[in-house]
Amino acid sequence: MKLQNKKVAIVATNGFEESELFEPLQRLKDEGATVDIISIEKGEIVGKHGAENGKSIQVDKTFGEVKPEDYNALVLPGGLANPDTLRQNKDAVAFVKHFGEVNKPIAAICHGPWTMINAEIVKGKKMTSYPSLEVDLRNAGVNWVDEEVVVDQGMVTSRTPDDLPAFNDKMVEEIAEGKH
Description:
Largest sheet: 7 strands, mixed
Order of helices and strands: EHEEEEEHHEHEHEEEH
Shape: globular
Number of strands: 11
Helix content: 25-40%
Radius of gyration: 14 Å
Number of helices: 6
């Protein structure tokens, strides 16, 4: 129960990679964290399992109903459509930006860092991601590396669902440590 008394926001919308939301969510709950699924609209959001539609999950709150100050950490699952939609939403970008500006832990996997680029919180960081984001992250001033999991001042990044065990371990560790 390393995360008892910690409140974590998982920010996602339709098209999230199923395993990259559900596995961190379960690990956070197993460690005692309170977790909210935050999205653009109320209702259910539908994940992807590869190219197929995956499981759905109920949105707990929309960006209009929350303040980033109420959360200790942020998780950004990947998938292709999910972060591409989020990075074009001003409320989502502002929510993510807060965590970077005040150095709260952020865990982003696969395409999740796309939203962080638009929030302008990645410059000078060492990060990894799904390989197709390498150029985007380098152009945003990131020292991009091809590693299973990378941690830089509370920012945890990983490449693919294969990296989830290491990603989840580092996510828990950084959230337990708190602000950096």
